[in-house]
Amino acid sequence: MVRQTTRQLVELSLYAALIMISVQFLRIPVGAQFVHIGNALVAVAVLLYGSKLGVLVAAIGLGLFDILNGYAAVAWITILESLIVCLVLHLVFEKLLRADKQMRNVVIVGVVAALIKIISNLVKYTIINSLVGGVSIEAAVAAAVVKIGGTFGTALVTIIAVPILYPILKRIVAR
């Protein structure tokens, strides 16, 4: 593993704090969920730091939010979802697109991150509804679609915010 300098560790810590604080204070309640910019910041973290460090700041930022806001019991699921998003972005951006940071590819990263967020929440709530609720798969999927209204909003925010935030944060990190 590559050793990080103190400056890099502080920068990663501040980015994790940015994720946590943005979800804490910049969220809009939608049913049982809320729309937030956290997923977009996770995608930008992969663009800025790569998938390994991106998943680290995502897990810390989103995990801390869950722990500090009464979602400690499901923090592990949030961290697992972050891992899945970063893994897929690793495969798409770093492998398929060869980490080429053209604006077209940045937009693709935002769209992929949004789709993975929707799919992972749909799968999560379908499993919960079918196993815990004891309903059929069809009913579990229907209930999951109804429950993830906030996820659709977060996905839309991700698609819009990633191409906007990446150039701004890239300049800040480059200093």
Summarize the structure.
Keywords: Membrane, Transmembrane, Transmembrane helix. This protein has helices spanning 6-25, 38-49, 51-68, 75-96, 103-131, 137-147, 149-174, and strands at residues 28-30, 33-35.
Topology:
Blueprint: H1 6-25, E1 28-30, E2 33-35, H2 38-49, H3 51-68, H4 75-96, H5 103-131, H6 137-147, H7 149-174
Antiparallel strand pairs: 1-2
InterPro entries: ECF_substrate-spec-like
Pfam families: ECF-ribofla_trS
Organism: Streptococcus acidominimus
Strand portion: under 5%
Count, helices: 7
According to CATH, what is the class? Mainly Alpha
**Which structural class is indicated by helix and strand composition?**
mainly alpha
β-strand number: 2
Account of the protein in words:
The chain has seven helices and two strands; from the N terminus they run αββαααααα. With 175 residues, it is mainly alpha-helical. The protein has a single domain (7-114, 159-174), classed as Arp2/3 complex 21 kDa subunit ARPC3 (Orthogonal Bundle), CATH 1.10.1760. It is globular.
State the main characteristics.
175 residues, mainly alpha, Arp2/3 complex 21 kDa subunit ARPC3, two-stranded antiparallel sheet, 7 helices
